[in-house]
Amino acid sequence: MDAPVHGKPLPGYEVYGKTLSQLNAVISGPRSRIEKISKISTEPISVAGQKQPVFALVDLNIPDNMVRVTASSPIEVTVEIGAIRRSITVQQVPVLIDDSSYQVMPGHISVQLLVPATFTGKLGSSDLSAIISIKEIDRAKLPMKVKPDVRLRTNPDPAIAIKEIWPPEVTISRIRN
Hints:
The longest helix has 4 residues, at 31-34. The strands form six sheets. A five-stranded mixed sheet has the order 15-13-10-12-16, with no helix packed on it. It has a three-stranded antiparallel sheet with strand order 2-9-6, with no helix packed on it. It has two domains: 5-83, no CATH class; 85-174, RNA Polymerase Alpha Subunit, Chain A, domain 2. 2% of the residues lie in helices and 47% in strands. It is an all-beta fold.
């Protein structure tokens, strides 16, 4: 399910993302019509001139009048809006594992962050943590690739967000004695 937006936020602001109260809907109608539907959208939401999150109650927008939606109430949509961000990359973030009898390869990752365009602070590898918990891993399947849990240790600005990590997965294996 998608919630399209139209218009542009105030200059210096951008849409960060959207949250919908439901992600699926039950539809009914002729099978030949339903099979053609791959995604359902809500009515468009205006973000024109906004600089703060927009909350809207919207109905689903199905252009085929032979298809009906069984949703009984409007969909709640929040469109997150904030200051325009730029991308920075923090390299050599160590990947830590909570059991010393296992190893992780590679031992360091790069993390791409989105920061406000006006952000003048410095962020380095010590500002991030990349952790793998061996307790959550099926050890019978080792070696295996897993995605590290990457977080900012402290967040000096709520608009800072992790966009991507590289490599996206690391390999865990048991250390041979």
